[in-house]
Design brief:
Length: 237
């Protein structure tokens, strides 16, 4: 029969493990592409279970992207866009992936209004457009686009829809998760690096609490430490 000493010992070891486990990790860092391409940075977008991988080339002012999301239905669509004049969908220059003649294709749309979604050339050059289906129903949009010289950030918008009619996307839902699908994309300070080890290392943060992610990890570990000490004290009684 096992000694009663082992029960509190196992409990203490389990609680100690909570102190050293990472509190958060980005989903995008574990995503792979069929062409094995690596991008310099990636971001878990805050709504619609969407992700952006990207590489900004300041030398020729270009942005290479891979956008991952899941359409609202198998016959729906996904979109990633840049809005040169605002922060929402209206006015955006969009790359939209949808099924065309039975296969996925990327089309370009100028979203001048919610009632006027026109397939057209964009206000900037785009090339290497491609779409493919991934695992678990996800789709991927690949592409490269020209951005303004010395730009530091862009207004990005993303979206998903359930239906396509006559080769064009129908309106998406207007739920809060859809309406909040917009964010500033920083090209200078990237949130997560996937650059090979030969690239220069980022400058260390001046404080362990200098970012929200690290602050959250510190708070979680502090709480775990308090719980650990409380239970150890209780076991000693």
């Amino acid at each position: 029969m096992a000694s009663p000493f082992f029960s509190p010992l196992i409990l203490c070891i389990s609680l100690w493990a909570l102190l050293i486990l990472p509190a958060h990790s980005l989903t995008c860092t574990s995503q792979k592409f069929s062409n094995s391409k690596l991008y310099a940075s990636c971001s878990d977008l805050p709504t619609l279970d969407s992700y952006l991988h990207y590489t900004y080339n300041a030398t020729n002012s270009s942005l290479s992207i891979a956008f991952l999301s899941t359409p609202a239905s198998s016959d729906g669509w996904i979109a990633w866009a840049i809005n040169p004049t605002g922060t929402g969908m209206v006015g955006s220059q969009a790359l939209i992936a949808l099924k065309s003649s039975g296969s996925l294709a990327v089309k370009t749309y100028n979203i001048s209004s919610y009632s006027s979604i026109e397939q057209s050339n964009l206000s900037f050059d785009v090339w290497d457009l491609k779409a493919e289906s991934g695992s678990n129903g996800t789709w991927v949009i690949y592409g490269s686009l020209k951005v303004p010289d010395k730009v530091e950030q862009l207004n990005q918008v993303w979206q998903i829809g359930a239906r396509v009619s006559d080769g064009h996307p129908n309106k998406h839902e207007f739920a809060p998760t859809n309406l909040d699908a917009k964010e500033t994309l920083s090209l200078v300070e990237t949130p997560q690096s996937l650059t090979p080890a030969s690239a220069p290392a980022p400058t260390p943060a001046p404080s362990p609490l200098s970012t929200p992610e690290k602050a959250g990890q510190s708070i979680l570990r502090t709480n775990n430490l308090g719980l650990f000490l409380f239970l150890v004290s209780a076991l000693a009684l």
